[in-house]
Amino acid sequence: MSLYITVVMLLMFIFNATFWDIEVDNTKGFFEGTGDNRHPTGKNLAFTMLFNTFIHLHLFNQINCRKIKNDQYNVFQHFFSIGNIYPVLIFLIQLGVQYIFVQYGGYITRCS
Fold first, then answer.
1. Helix, strand or coil, per DSSP, at residue 39
2. Strand spans (E) along 1-112
3. Does pLDDT of 93 surpass 70?
4. Residue 75 has what DSSP assignment?
5. What percent of the chain has a predicted confidence (pLDDT) above 70?
6. What is the pTM of this model?
């Protein structure tokens, strides 16, 4: 799984700006303008997509790590059972924090 995540992240890092047609200028910062007139640059958009992909790959890897035996293929078996509520809550909290970072973090988290 770590090799898969590494390959996906490297491919996104290399081809992200080209694939999504984002103009990345490394001489600029993450935001242009000042105060209320601040807006994200292409560099910020590309790195936000990388950050978001990285976190989501690891979140879904947490689901895959629930089954460790060779004969267990269904990772969603008993996923929403009453005795299994804490991993689901932790997953939802992490997903919520990721959403807040990207949507409302702005200049503090350098996400857009």
1. strand
2. 31-32, 39-40
3. yes
4. T
5. 94
6. 0.74
* Nearest-angstrom CA–CA distance, 68 and 64: 9
State pLDDT tens for residues 78-89: 777 777 788 888
Beta-carbon contacts of residue 94 (< 8 Å; ≥ 6 apart): 55, 59
The answer to whether the CB of 63 falls within 8 A of the CB of 74 is: no
Q: Are 48 and 111 in contact (CB under 8 A)?
A: yes
Spatial distance between the Cα atoms of 54 and 2, rounded to a whole number of angstroms:
11
Q: What is the CA radius of gyration of the chain?
A: 18
SS3 assignment, position 52: helix
Provide the pLDDT for residue 8.
Answer: 92
Measured CA to CA, the distance from residue 98 to residue 16 in angstroms comes to 20
- C-alpha closest to that of 47 among 24, 70, 28: 24
User: Three-class SS of residue 40?
Assistant: strand
Question: Residues with Cβ < 8 Å from 61, sequence gap 6 or more?
Answer: 1, 5
Two structure tokens written together for 20: 């999504």
